[in-house]
Amino acid sequence: xxxxxxxxxxxxERFWMVLGVLVAMLGAIYVLRPLGFIAFMIFAGILAGxxxxxxxxxxxxxxxxxxxxxxxxxxxxxxxxxxxxSWLIGPNIIDQAxxxxxxxxxxxxxxxxxxxxxxxxxxxxxNLTRTNxxxxxxxxxxxxxxxxxxxxxxxxxxIFFIGFYLALKPSVYINGFLKLIPPGKRERIRTxxxxxxxxxxxxxxxxxxxxIVVGILSLIGYLILDIQLALAxxxxxxxxxxxxxxxxxxxxxPALIVTVAEEPIKALYVLIVYSIVQVLxxxxxxxxxxQHATSVPAAFLITVQIVMAVVGGLMGILIATPLAxxxxxxxxxxxxxxxxxxxx
Length: 344
Hints:
Blueprint: H1 2-31, H2 36-62, H3 67-115, H4 119-130, H5 135-147, H6 149-168, H7 170-178, H8 186-224, H9 230-240, H10 246-262, H11 264-289, H12 298-337
Helix pairs in contact: 2-3, 2-6, 2-8, 2-12, 3-5, 3-9, 3-10, 8-9, 8-11, 8-12, 9-10, 10-11
């Protein structure tokens, strides 16, 4: 009887502890919201540092180069690949991206007029209007996001330099942070950092592979079906596949808008290509490349993405999944294993 009472009390304490942590996290998000973009940039820089560090360690595992030399070789290789890609397909991408920017607003209006010609389309539009869905605002935001080139380049440079210096001497930053932790807990936190870094590195590598494959498959499908602006739409599909679940849906929107406005039957073809690529990505590519990455339940991940979208907009959506991966590793090790003593 006493054991049951003790178990009930322990469960109640755990419930209130988890609830308290969640309330504290939401409170911290609300308080730090004005500084959210800076925090997101720092976290993105940490992700870049983790990726660079993984590549550096891979090089040093096979070739005994000093860390600085291995890091410089990695950066030079990235720059060469970027320059080669810009030279080969850069002009076409820029030209098609500019055409897409011009077409999306007008295509959205034409798509609306086409929908209103059908009873089912009119009903869909009326439902969107009743729910105050900001269709025009979404198009405006997408256009603004695509056109803010200088801002994107500046942010990428900041993220790159944060990642570069973290990868240059990661131990300096880790040891500096551990000085803030009580001595008895430092080794455990160091282990948590190590596992979190490994999980994020595996997830990032898996995402990069998926992005490349999705982009190539989408391009092949669009070219076969003679879809206009195929290269730009395929690049968008590849880039947005960095965001699980929500990313592919966002990538589908401009493709549907453009094709419906020009030739409605091609929208069906786009849906077919999209479905084939997503089936291949979900059931073949992802299981192969993410077998060593931390698994994140879909419902939990989508919830995190929505919350981060509200808090941080586009940047929040981009970092939502790696943040969820890091959070799951930390909760598993620091709460499930250390507090609940459950190692299963």
